[in-house]
TrEMBL record:
Name this polypeptide is given: Hemolysin type calcium-binding protein
Name of the gene: apxIA_1
Gene3D superfamilies for this protein: Serralysin-like metalloprotease, C-terminal (2.150.10.10)
SUPFAM superfamilies: beta-Roll (SSF51120)
Organism the protein comes from: Limimaricola soesokkakensis
GO molecular function, one term: calcium ion binding
Pfam families: HemolysinCabind (PF00353)
Source organism, top-level taxon: Bacteria
Length: 198
């Protein structure tokens, strides 16, 4: 018999679902600004609006921060993090995470592991940190900055075909222009070998 999730419905105050049992939690917050804590396994967190602070636990969690200027610490293992609208700060931390920024100006850290990072229509800052990370862009992702890109280890994926241009600067950076998207890779000299279409 499959283990049924523990349903946690927010009431506008902070949510602490760290001690509700071994079953995964499914947490529904409100449009208020809340602090949400979940230290279980395979949890799902839906934060809606407000400027939320979210901490998840171990194993594979799915976090949708919703609207607002949110902070997410995804914890250990492989997690899926969606920032939504607002100026978000998103940490994938340990594991091979997928972290998607959403609209507005986001700061995204992959953490340990081989992470996938998407600015997704934001003017964002992306830092894969440790691991072989993948940075994905479409033609309408705004102006992004990528830090800690390791040439020959990390990769760039472009999602809508077409053409792009790479310009290496005298300061040791690389500028990628793809449609209406401009990405500056700091302290990294990329070539076409680092770029793939998907």
């Amino acid at each position: 018999m499959a283990i049924q999730p523990n349903i946690v419905q927010g009431n506008g105050g902070d949510i602490n679902a760290s001690g509700i049992g071994v079953a995964p939690a499914r947490i529904y917050a409100t449009n208020n600004s809340e602090t949400i804590r979940s230290t279980g396994s395979d949890d799902q967190i839906y934060a809606k609006g407000g400027d939320d602070i979210i901490y998840s636990g171990h194993n594979q969690d799915v976090i949708n921060a919703g609207d607002g200027n949110d902070f997410v610490d995804a914890g250990a293992s492989r997690d899926f993090v969606f920032g939504g609208a607002g100026n978000d700060t998103l940490y994938g931390n340990e594991g091979n995470d997928a972290v998607v920024g959403g609209d507005d100006d986001d700061i995204i850290y992959g953490g340990d592991g081989n992470d996938g990072l998407w600015g997704d229509n934001s003017n964002g800052s992306l830092d894969g940190t440790v691991g072989a990370d993948t940075f994905r862009f479409d033609k309408a992702d705004g102006s992004d900055n990528v830090f800690d890109f390791a040439v020959g280890i990390d990769a760039v994926e472009l999602t809508q075909g077409g053409t792009y241009s790479l310009t290496q600067t005298a300061a040791g950076h690389t500028k990628l222009i793809y449609g209406e998207t401009t990405v500056l890779f700091h302290n990294a000299l990329l070539t076409t070998d680092d770029i793939d279409f998907i």
